[in-house]
Amino acid sequence: MLTSTEGLYLPVQYIKVTTVMPSPHPRPRKMSRGYLIIFLLIAAFVGGFLYAAGMFGSTTTSAQQFIDLQEPDPPHLGFRRAHAKGICIQGELISTGLLAPFTDAEFFQADVTQPFIGRFSIAGANPLAPDLDAPVRSMALSFSSSSGQRWRTAMNTPTVMPVATPEDLYQQFKVLAPNPDTGKPDPDKIRAFFDAHPETAAFNDWKQSYRPTNSFATEQYNSINAFYLIDSQGQRRAVRWTMVPQAKTSSMPSSIGDAPDALQLELAQRLQQAPVQFDLMFAFATDQDDETNPTIPWPSTRHTINAATLIIHKVSAQEDGACNGINFNPLVLPQGLAPTADRILNARGAAYAESYRRRAQETFFGSSIIGVKE
Q1: Are 43 and 353 in contact (CB under 8 A)?
Q2: 224 Cβ partners below 8 Å, 6+ apart?
Q3: Largest Cα–Cα distance of the chain, in whole Å?
């Protein structure tokens, strides 16, 4: 069953699942009509509230417009509008205790081990896209403590955003949308957009230098947006975090090759040998850094703390996995963590709510669903 939606959370036990190979033919997953009614009402309420509160910063740009640009025509009913293709993961986060002086967040106190449910995914709205063709890969995690504290984080392989405002991001989506006549984006419009937005330079530098690896387990995943750590005295410190893989890059097993589900197959095969581990690194801003601007990379010389070790034990196909019902909204934060005034970060909640509302509605009204729901 669904475990969460924006503004509502239904706790579930941490359930061990067997390592399975991803299904080449995703199956629909039924949802209770009673839960769906609640989810639809909550998602619609929250999406409307965030829009009315000006989370997008403009009366002419709405969450609905953002999602419209991301989904294909016709949409893949029942799937997430972005990062539609993914695989569920489960494991634990083991705190080093080194971050405890800077935050009250219980997940980072000494001697704390916290189970998690998560998801690896590739960019795009196509749930059948070839894994190795995706330009961006993502890791999303959901933590829920016994005391009721929750933390969701959605991280990506880029280190920065191309633009700093929801309005500019919407315009970027528009120029990247396929031309109805050619079925492809207009390269002249794309060039003009980036020429008019010099703040995209750092993102373009990352894009030119990034070389995808052959495994979800060997990628580095970044929060991109900055957040505040809040300590027991109420002091705030701006940080960004990164999941740094402990595994080294390696070649794709010959038995997998360039299969459409290559990354999922490789991960399942890797986990049969040993757990996959990442170091959760927090970088601290200085007075020279603007925590509200996600287009500017922070220097590698910033003070960094190894806050925890993430250990992945299990993987399961998303249509049957525990991640299927989770909305990985990065604004779901525990005590001791808070969002900055980054406008892109604060607009994401509304977009997540609208995307969820559409998926829940499609499921509730019995649309033809070939995949999973959020």
Answers
A1: yes
A2: 155, 156, 158, 159, 160, 161, 240, 294
A3: 59
Domain boundaries, the chain: 4-364
Torsion angle, CA of 132/66/297/137, rounded to 10 degrees? -20
Distance (Å, whole) CA 342 – CA 333: 15
pLDDT digits (tens, 9 = 90+) for 304-327: 999 999 999 999 998 878 988 888
Among 142, 137, 179, 184, which residue's Cα sits nearest to residue 157?
137
Query: Residue 229 corresponds to which tokens in the numbers above?
Result: 């750590």
Per-residue pLDDT tens for 24-45? 444 434 444 443 333 333 333 3
In whole angstroms, what is the distance from residue 365 CA to residue 37 CA?
A: 11
Single out the residue of 248, 240, 253, 230 nearest to residue 294, CA to CA.
240
Exposed, middle or buried, 254 (CB in 10 Å: 0-12/13-18/19+)? exposed
At the topology level of CATH, where does 4-364 sit? Catalase HpII,  Chain A, domain 1 (2.40.180)
Q: 238, 82, 86, 227: which is closest to 169 by C-alpha? A: 82
Contacts of 211 (CB under 8 A, 6+ apart): none
Structure tokens that stand for 207 in this block: 């894009």
